[in-house]
Isoamylase 1, chloroplastic isoform X3 (Ziziphus jujuba), 643 residues
Amino acid sequence: MLYGYKFDGKLSPEKGHYYDYSRIVLDPYAKAVIRRGDFGTLGPDGDCWPQMACAVPSSNSKFDWEGDLPLKYPQKDLIIYEMHVRGFTRHESSRTEFPGTYRGVVEKLDHLKELGINCIELMPCNEFNELEYFSYNSVLGDYKVNYWGYSTVSYFSPMIRYSSAGVSNCGYDAINEVKLLIREAHKRGIEVIMDVVFNHTAEGNENGPILSFRGADNSVYYMLAPKGEFYNYSGCGNTFNCNHPIVRQFIVDCLRYWVTEMHVDGFRFDLASIMTRGSSLWDAVNVYGNPIEGDLLTTGTPLSSPPLIDMISNDPILRGVKLIAEAWDTGGLYQVGKFPHWGVWSEWNGKYRDIVRQFIKGTDGFSGAFAECLCGSPNLYQEGGRKPWNSINFVCAHDGFTLADLVSYNKKHNLANGEDNNDGENHNNSWNCGQEGEFVSISVKKLRKRQMRNFFLCLMVSQGVPMIYMGDEYGHTKGGNNNTYCHDNYINYFRWDKKEDSSSDFFRFCCLMTKFRQDCESLGLHDFPTAERLQWHGHAPRTPDWSEKSRFVAFSLMDSVKGEIYIAFNTSHLAVTISLPERPGHRWEPLVDTSKPAPYDFLSSDLPGRDIAIQQYAHFLDANIYPMLSYSSIILLLSPAEE
């Protein structure tokens, strides 16, 4: 049985009202939304927006959680993997029984376990319409779709067409498939975080469709100007009116549902700065219960204590889950390091991404900022009482270059999007290592692999929470396209054949580095490191160089498990021989050197020929020095000297 609502009232857009009794609109609280059953398939008569309906709650959709309980990992221990559900197993090389679905992800969870992942961040899995941008793409000869899903139709409903069950049982089989994914991830010790989009909806501006919120009460759910125009802080046509009392209660109800009913472990909030802006119809009595003297807030004003963030932060259910803000919006509000946090919110650290990219590619003037990044960005988070784990560190994410493209392209190559290369970010802080594109000399290919290892090593030895983007573990390329929102094809699909072939030596390196991070007590600290634990070095011990021209950063770290660790980055185009800290009765042993070809880039204990490889370093280490090639990084461990 399905249902929908009809709302009676006047259609007067200039007053902010879009009531239309001829339309059947969705219940904002609907648990499942039904229309087409298959991803990318048009409705009757080629309709991209066929009539939708809500599923009436059913008693025959029970799910056996098998005693599932939240893992509740301390956030400092997380290694996050940003994943697109369809893209993860859609490619034929995945050889899954249910490619491109929640069940397909379940079939491949062991890959994440091998990689050392203990938290998946799912790109939008709320109901959206992938045919929203449906149009012929003459460049590729296929059709553009809304592949990423940042355009929500229904917040309580999962994306039905990501399930193998489709619309069977009125969508309740699809709900159970999401529960299956979460239950099976928990069994493998992997938490699941949802990427949610409460900054705008798929209803667009005044020319957009009337689907749900607009037909129910447009003036409440959207941020409107006095004559009914839509504020557009999202860049997508409308702005969800997050701090209105009705809307913020709706958002809290929705988040609670996903935690209590669906067992998700937390949320990443897309363009979260919009959730800190004052609502239209702002009324201090309505918001705070009493008038505030001099309350002249205009619509969209950033609030120091946003009621919605306050409610979430102090909610007995929600304050115990992971809460991650993308702390900016397209209206110019940038709050990295300043997002209202109540001690429980973390942030995607966009400054970490930009600084690490600059330093690793050898840009002058970033050695001091890079050192801050290694320490968990205390310059951003310490003063406000937050900790390193409030920083979500990343080098690459779904928007922007992949890791392989970051070291292969100086410029974006977005022609495949059909927008004459005008879309996407122009400032990528990338470096192609000497030649643009895929077909380059062997020496350039070697340098690119080295740079990829440098980026990944940096991510794993930084305080804070590392986040990896799907496919970066084997070097997935999108051909230099940094805005692949519209491609349901090989550009975005995880290539299992590439991961498994001989060039996946980078995958081995990634697995060993994540394990090293998890084995070390000192690489996921609860608090910022102090001089008792960490010492900075330059080409000589205890003489760090923070000058404008410095491209060398090194430090030693006391670790209760590994003893003492020495880590160094040389991002100069020149090789350098460094002096190591004197430790009488001990000697430094090599573990990682990104300048070495695989498998000697990481000297794991089970590596054939490991002793011979170590012997090749011996005469240097006997003299307490180490030669570092250009664009390389190393990890050394202190061990007792043999007689």
Q: What stands out?
A: Residues 442-461 form the longest helix (20 residues). The radius of gyration is 26 Å. The longest strand covers residues 632-640. The chain has a mean pLDDT of 95.
